[in-house]
Amino acid sequence: MPIPEPATVAAELRTAMGKLTRRVKHEDRIPLGQVAVLGTLDRDGAMTTSDLAADQRVRPQSMARAVGLLMDQGLVARRAHPTDGRKSLVELSPAGRAALEAERGRRAGWLAQAIETELTPEERHLLARSAALMERLASH
Fold first, then answer.
1. Beta-carbon neighbour count of residue 139 at 10 Å?
2. What angle do CA 60, 64, 68 make, to 5 degrees?
3. Contact call for residues 100 and 39 (beta carbons, < 8 A)
4. Which residues contact residue 89 at a Cβ distance below 8 angstroms, ignoring those fewer than 6 apart?
5. What phi and psi values does residue 89 have, to the nearest 5 degrees?
6. Nearest CA-CA partner of 130 in 7, 12, 1, 5
7. Chain CA centroid to CA 132, Å
8. Which of 37, 18, 47, 35 lies closest to 106 in space, CA to CA?
């Protein structure tokens, strides 16, 4: 069997990863934009609304609305900026952390179930090895 061209593998991998990502997101109960904000706060810690907007590549006004919705749900909280009294920081609340962990658990649970029911043991071993390769590519 000939070795596939890297461009062909890249196109097929990108398509498959896109489909899988979209399918896993169907398990979400919190809207995608809100989950993205919660995830950023979890990974990067407290930040200003402007910094969140820049990170998510949206207008500050749009982020202010998203943060307001998350605050109304008790998923984030505001606190004073430590060095600039004109600013405030948005941070994940304990309820926000729990909601994010539940979202991640639903995603991982669905994927684990799909792996168990759809793949043979040999395919699971191959997928595990492939995950390490994809991680290596992502770090390149």
1. 6
2. 170
3. yes
4. 46, 47, 48, 78, 79, 80, 81
5. -105, 145
6. 12
7. 19
8. 35
Q: What does pTM read for this prediction?
A: 0.77
Distance between CA 75 and CA 94 in Å, rounded? 7
SS3 for 107? helix
For residue 97, with 0-12 CB atoms within 10 Å meaning exposed, 13-18 middle and 19 or more buried, which class applies?
middle
Q: What is the pLDDT of residues 9-67, one digit of tens each?
A: 999 999 999 999 899 888 888 888 899 999 999 999 999 999 999 999 999 999 999 99
- Segment 87-114, tens digit of pLDDT: 999 999 999 999 999 999 999 999 999 9
Tally of residues, the chain: 140
Q: List the structure tokens of 48.
A: 């200003």
